[in-house]
Design a protein that fits this description.
The complex is a heterodimer of chains A (about 375) and B (about 400).
Chain A (H helix, E strand, L loop, with lengths): L7 H17 L2 H9 L6 H9 L18 H12 L7 H15 L2 H13 L4 E4 L16 E5 L2 E12 L6 E7 L10 E7 L5 E5 L9 E12 L3 E2 L6 H36 L1 E2 L2 E2 L4 H30 L4 H27 L10 H13 L4 H14 L1
Parallel strand pairs in A: 1-4
Antiparallel strand pairs in A: 2-3, 3-7, 4-5, 5-8, 6-7, 9-10
Helix pairs in contact in A: 1-4, 4-7, 5-6, 5-7, 7-8, 7-9, 7-10, 8-9, 9-10, 9-11
Chain B lengths: L6 H21 L11 H17 L18 H13 L8 H14 L2 H12 L5 E4 L15 E5 L2 E8 L10 E7 L10 E7 L5 E6 L8 E12 L3 E2 L5 H15 L3 H17 L1 E2 L2 E2 L4 H29 L8 H23 L17 H12 L6 H12 L6 H7 L1
Parallel strand pairs in B: 1-4
Antiparallel strand pairs in B: 2-3, 3-7, 4-5, 5-8, 6-7, 9-10
The chains are: A alpha+beta (about 375), B alpha+beta (about 400).
Chain lengths: ~375, ~400
């Protein structure tokens, strides 16, 4: 029968992830990491690696565990409750999944075991100064044939955790033709290659580090090319779907936590001799928050399942989830601040950590408006 | 997690759809909302269709076989509702029966009551109405004042109900009345099953903003009913009423009809123009189409999640309020968008030669305004979610009244 519940193993994984984030990443730690350029301590990173989370999606032949995306999804939901700082998302999803889907056998052998063990970090450089999540958006960063390989030039923006990555996967234009979807290639670039400069951006969400990556005549060998030259867009699109499904799980975890913070406060904060949650103005906001949180879970779980099973409607499921979770995470975290009143507006209170993560996650891989439009395109071109 | 239908569930759909399409083909023209003057004809088709469903083993999917149900699952029930609604094959004129009366009779009724009422509900011969709201007791249902006074083995009932949907067509009524005025208001209520042909009932139709007379005022003047028509014990009225509303919020999934609505809006957007271009090319319209498509699909996933839990043995709880709040608010907004999409044409009602789709969305738009009022307003649903799901305290005024 249809069974929308997690399996027993997934429930166990969820509990273990809940314990971990609560014990190892309490709010004080998260705040410290906002001030720390790396975004994570080696100690916490190593512990996550020991739990095996970084190898969940990596096939066993590359020293991973080879489980399904659903399994990783429950971990992301729990990470969203903190909300988790650091490069887990970029390395495991953007780096790991792009290499798994696009990499040559040598590239997989060289990098995936390290990602699975937490010894190597990778990320994906996609967006440019004119940000657009479509083939036409890969425009200004170009890779041209050079001695023994290619020379890459151009600026990539909003690249998660490039400053701590060992490898930067760069989506670059290799051919200009009538169809922008053709002529995009992926390159696996060692981050120490000369000509590459990386600058950490000062972002609103201090937990998720993002960078400018400037390629100035970065020479890469032929062996850096991932898959077929000029044919990378379908893979990029697929990685974006997987990344969005993960971000949605993180967002519903954050919504759940924001709802808890809000309801706890509404039960205990007294105004006019009564808990403020007894007043309908507040109670009804909380009820609405519950409704959108549960609805966001329904669609995020569906998207996680669709991505995991690689169903034909997975891209639609992801666009639905990303649009709805973005709108509702923004709303829920904003209402959380409103109900908290003055204290919710302070730096000291955790409400803004979620409020800011909502803004960051929405804009990674297409915002709500982008995904609603993409959905209508998919529905009407079918 | 597995969102796929199981082979058995898929087989159920494969078996049901050809049967349903056969019935529709045989019927030819199905009477619809446009025949508002022909409400009798629409109700007659409901009864005929329900009989066909019953004879073919498709009535009361989740209800026990011993009372004529199929003994199937909530997922099969979802599939059946979806397929019927996608084709607008029949209007459900017995929502009160299936959504409220049946559930509480199965839960609280005697064996005699179950034998008497459940099969007649399933085979289409009896339609139910619900006497809950009164002119001075709507959201505050426990304030109702219709009185039942014990007289020998009977009760004598006097008072008035209002917004009683289908009372003019109904054969039976679930009625909540005050049997004891001297105890706190929630404790003095009792629950009856009433034959609508009982002497002393006067039904006066009320015309709604759609032009349909779906609901009524119902007056009781010295109506005499035997004690055996009581459901549960004297004083159980509040408990059973609350249970009734919980069942209601889970009973019938409306996904199929909303799917039909939004699919129709996608088609409409290709055919109407905005600033001289097909509306489907307008970025604002696209945002809204996308939004409602998402909301309709989430309704399905929410339903699947809650049914999946119920299948594991959990009983209907206050979470049903989330579903009711969700679909009613969604539908209101979606039908409002339909009016926006039609532009100036949205003013044209069925019957105008210029009306789009013969005024289908005008009817749906007007009807949707009732969604957030009937069966517990959105504000009451939010109180229930706030208090019974999230555990927020009651407001001081209401807490004081209860004491």
């Amino acid at each position: 029968m249809v069974d929308t519940a997690f399996t027993e193993e997934q429930d166990m994984l969820k509990r273990s992830a809940r314990n971990f984030v609560e014990n190892e990443c309490p709010p004080e730690y998260v705040r410290e990491m906002w001030e720390n350029d790396e975004g994570i301590t080696q100690e916490v990173w190593n512990k996550m690696a020991e739990l095996g989370w970084m190898g969940l999606l990596v096939p066993e032949e590359y020293d991973g565990i080879g489980m399904s995306f659903q399994d990783l999804a429950v971990v992301f939901e729990e990470m969203g409750r903190v909300p988790m700082p650091g490069p887990f998302f970029s390395s495991v999803v953007l780096g790991g999944e792009t290499i798994r889907l696009a990499g040559t056998e040598e590239q997989k052998k060289a990098v995936l075991p390290g990602i699975a063990m937490g010894e190597t970090r990778a990320t994906l450089a996609l967006m440019e100064c004119d940000p657009l999540l479509s083939p036409a958006g890969i425009e200004s960063v170009k890779a041209e044939p050079a001695a023994d390989g290619y020379a890459i030039n151009g600026i990539k923006l909003f690249v998660p955790d490039a400053h701590t990555a060992d490898y930067i996967i760069c989506a670059a234009r290799t051919d200009e033709g009538a169809d922008p979807a053709k002529g995009i290639s992926l390159f696996l670039v060692d981050s120490k290659t000369s000509g590459l400069s990386i600058e950490l951006l000062k972002t609103m969400d201090g937990g998720r580090k993002q960078c400018e990556v400037n390629f100035e005549n970065v020479a890469v060998p032929e062996s850096a090319l991932m898959g077929q030259k000029g044919e990378a867009w379908p893979i990029i699109s697929k990685v974006a779907d997987i990344a969005n499904a993960a971000l949605c799980m993180e967002m519903v975890g954050g919504m759940e936590k924001s709802l808890e913070l809000t309801v706890d406060y509404a039960k205990t904060r007294i105004a006019f001799d009564q808990p403020i949650g007894s007043y309908q103005a507040i109670k009804h906001m909380c009820a609405d928050m519950m409704l959108i949180t549960e609805s966001a879970k329904s669609v995020a779980y569906y998207a996680a399942w669709a991505v995991s099973e690689d169903t034909p409607d997975a891209p639609e499921a992801v666009s639905m989830a990303k649009a709805y979770c973005s709108d509702t995470y923004r709303k829920a975290t904003g209402d959380c601040i409103q109900i908290m009143g003055g204290i919710g507006f302070t730096w000291e209170h955790d409400a803004h950590l979620y409020f800011k993560r909502a803004r960051c996650n929405e804009h990674l891989f297409g915002d709500a408006a982008f995904h609603k439009d993409r959905l209508v395109t998919m529905k009407t071109s079918a | 997690m597995d969102f796929n239908l199981s082979p058995e569930e898929e087989a159920f759909r494969q078996e049901f759809v050809p049967w349903l399409e056969g019935v529709i083909a045989e019927k030819g023209k199905i009477p619809t909302f446009k025949d508002a003057e022909a409400l009798d004809e629409r109700v007659a088709w409901y009864r005929e269709m329900q009989k066909k469903l019953f004879d073919a083993g498709y009535a009361g999917i989740t209800w026990p076989k011993e009372y004529g149900g199929r003994g199937g699952t909530l997922i099969e029930s979802f599939i059946l509702d979806e397929e019927i609604q996608k084709r607008a094959a029949v209007e459900n004129f017995n929502g009160i029966g299936f959504g409220m009366a049946g559930g509480v009779i199965l839960a609280f009724g005697t064996d005699e009551q179950k034998d008497r009422y459940i099969p007649a509900m399933l085979n289409g011969s009896e339609i139910w109405c619900q006497g809950f709201s009164e002119p001075n007791a709507g959201s505050d249902l426990a304030a109702l004042s219709t009185r039942a006074v014990k007289d020998g083995d009977d009760y004598v009932i006097n008072g008035q109900k209002v917004w009683t949907s289908m009372a003019q067509m109904a054969d039976q009524c679930i009625l909540v009345v005050r049997t004891d005025p001297d105890v706190p208001k929630h404790k003095g209520l009792s629950f009856f099953i009433i034959d609508m042909k009982t002497p002393g009932i006067d039904v006066r139709p009320l015309v709604q903003i759609t032009g349909d007379a779906e609901f009524n005022e119902v007056y009781f003047d010295d109506m005499r009913v035997p004690r055996t028509q009581m459901l549960g014990e004297e004083g159980d009225g509040w408990k059973i009423s609350i249970a009734t509303l919980m069942f209601e919020r889970y009973a019938v999934s409306q996904y199929g009809s909303f799917r039909r609505s939004i699919d129709g809006l996608f088609e409409l957007a290709k055919n109407v123009t905005r600033n001289g271009r097909p509306a489907i090319e307008d970025p604002v319209i696209r945002q809204k189409l996308g939004q409602f498509h998402i909301e309709v699909e989430i309704l399905k996933h929410n339903t699947m999640r809650s049914r999946s839990k119920l299948l594991k043995g959990e009983v209907p709880g206050p979470e049903g309020s989330i579903e009711k709040l969700y679909w009613s608010e969604m539908n209101k907004a979606m039908q409002e968008f339909a009016m926006e999409l039609e532009g100036p044409y949205h003013q044209l009602m069925s019957g105008s030669k210029w009306a789009l789709q013969d005024g289908m969305y005008q009817f749906a738009f007007l009807r949707s305004r009732g969604n957030t009022i009937e069966a517990g307003t959105s504000e009451i649903q939010k109180n229930i979610i706030g208090e019974r799901v999230l555990g927020l305290p009651k407001d001081a005024a209401r807490a004081a009244v209860k004491k």
